[in-house]
Design brief:
mainly alpha; Helix Hairpins
Length: about 110
């Protein structure tokens, strides 16, 4: 149960960075932290104490095995998250080239 609580704390830290911070780089880091907190939560849902790998064999009968579906989905999520993060960093670099700042309030002021 404490792992779920730590996962929620990690999610809250990422959400705090997304909502409160004004720097684009800090917002990107907050989004990545939030994403990995969600990934960790789904991995924890599929975990079983004392579970074995879900490999079927004629000789061995496994009654308590780890659910492989969350692991496969999270692998896909990690790849998609990496692509999104690369896109966000590229957009932040273009914004910095144009406005010479990462501060959102300053960008709004210079836009006008």
């Amino acid at each position: 149960m404490s792992l779920y609580l730590l996962c929620m704390v990690l999610f809250a830290i990422g959400l705090y960075c997304l909502l409160v911070k004004k720097n684009l780089v800090k917002k990107i880091i907050g989004l990545v932290i939030t994403e990995y907190a969600i990934n960790l939560f789904f991995i924890l849902l599929g975990y079983r104490t004392g579970g074995e790998a879900p490999i079927l064999s004629k000789d061995v009968v496994v009654t308590n095995f780890v659910d492989p579906l969350p692991q496969a989905l999270i692998l896909t999520s990690i790849v998609i998250g990496l692509g999104i993060m690369a896109l966000m960093v590229a957009i932040a670099m273009r914004i910095y080239e144009k406005y010479k700042t990462f501060d959102i309030n300053e960008i709004r002021r210079l836009k006008g």
